[in-house]
């Protein structure tokens, strides 16, 4: 394990198929009736089936192909296969204007150390690694999560310690804020999420996890320029910001599961 903590980052039915087979059969038989006795039979000839018919029933359950250029050069941590859905469980982190002001200050300084850093589009605290679900497992998986988390209470937490993270392959680096209060509640949530992962024979979360909110990221291993002096300066920005404890205090009200392009919400009590 690296010095930096790791980040876990259909066809329409048989009736339509019958219609397609009929259409294909009609195309393969030119002419409505047989030839006259006085005429020589025409040689058997198979006409090509139009592309529109050939592609009517392609599998639509798989995720769209990944275009690396559309995702800032990020490298997939597992190979894409049709019907496999990248799945992630997390607590969303709702932002306020003062948090975004602090984020702007942090990102501006971090970019003096690593110019290629970019701001995250959304913010959350992970409760799972990114795992692969088959399409037909998604609904049973989400239902199992709902059953496990049904009795959990909402809670407040604070994330105010700047920390540098990498993913397991060290192909991405993140600047994050580590959770400093609310850690036991997150451990309890992870314990239940891990049980669901085990039911579906999926990878559980990291041992001794560092719960955090990722603020910015870049491709590659950028720990060296970000740790040390840069990290201390980033922490000073947080500590000297007006009322940082209140700015960085958040309310965990729900757990979400993202599977491919589908989102599922599980409100806490």
TrEMBL record:
GO terms classed as biological process: U6 snRNA 3'-end processing
Q: Pfam families, alphabetically? A: HVSL
Query: What EC class is this?
Result: hydrolase
Q: Which InterPro entries match?
A: Cyclic_Pdiesterase (IPR009097), Usb1 (IPR027521)
Task: For the region Disordered, give the residue spans.
Answer: 1-48
Q: What is its main location?
A: nucleus
Keywords of this entry: Hydrolase, Lyase, Nuclease, Nucleus
Q: Subcellular location, in the record's words? A: Nucleus
Active-site residues, Swiss-Prot/TrEMBL: 124 (proton donor/acceptor), 212 (proton donor/acceptor)
Q: Tell me the domain of life.
A: Eukaryota
What's an example GO cellular component term for this entry?
nucleus
Q: Which reaction does it catalyse?
A: a 3'-end uridylyl-adenosine-RNA = a 3'-end 2',3'-cyclophospho-uridine-RNA + adenosine; a 3'-end uridylyl-uridine-RNA = a 3'-end 2',3'-cyclophospho-uridine-RNA + uridine
- Which EC numbers characterise this protein's activity in its record? 3.1.4.-
- SUPFAM superfamilies given in the database record: LigT-like
| UniProt family annotation | Belongs to the 2H phosphoesterase superfamily. USB1 family.
This protein's name:
U6 snRNA phosphodiesterase
**Source species, please?**
Mustela putorius furo
This chain is encoded by the gene named USB1
């Amino acid at each position: 394990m690296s010095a930096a903590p790791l980040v876990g980052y259909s066809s329409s039915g048989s009736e339509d198929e019958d219609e397609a087979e009929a259409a294909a059969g009609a195309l393969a038989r030119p002419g409505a009736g047989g030839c006259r006795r006085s005429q020589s039979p025409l040689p058997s000839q198979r006409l090509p089936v139009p592309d529109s018919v050939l592609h009517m029933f392609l599998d639509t359950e798989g995720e769209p192909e990944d275009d690396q250029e559309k995702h800032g050069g990020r490298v997939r941590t597992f190979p894409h296969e049709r019907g496999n859905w990248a799945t992630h469980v997390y607590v969303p982190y709702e932002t306020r204007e003062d948090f975004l002001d602090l984020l702007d200050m942090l990102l501006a300084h971090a970019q003096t150390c690593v110019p290629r850093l970019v701001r995250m589009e959304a913010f959350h605290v992970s409760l799972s690694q990114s795992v692969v679900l088959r399409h037909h497992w998604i609904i049973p998986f989400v239902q199992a999560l709902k059953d496990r988390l049904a009795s959990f209470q909402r809670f407040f937490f604070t994330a105010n310690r700047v920390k540098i993270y990498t993913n397991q392959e060290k192909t991405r680096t993140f600047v994050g804020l580590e959770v400093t209060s609310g850690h036991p509640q997150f451990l309890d949530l992870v314990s239940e999420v891990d049980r669901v992962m085990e039911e579906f024979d999926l990878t559980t979360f990291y041992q001794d996890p560092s719960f955090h909110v990722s603020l910015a990221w870049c491709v590659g291993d950028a720990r060296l320029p970000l740790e040390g002096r840069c990290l201390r300066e980033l922490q000073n920005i947080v500590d000297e910001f007006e009322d940082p404890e209140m700015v960085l205090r958040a309310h965990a009200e729900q757990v979400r599961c993202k599977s491919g392009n589908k989102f599922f919400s599980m409100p806490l009590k």
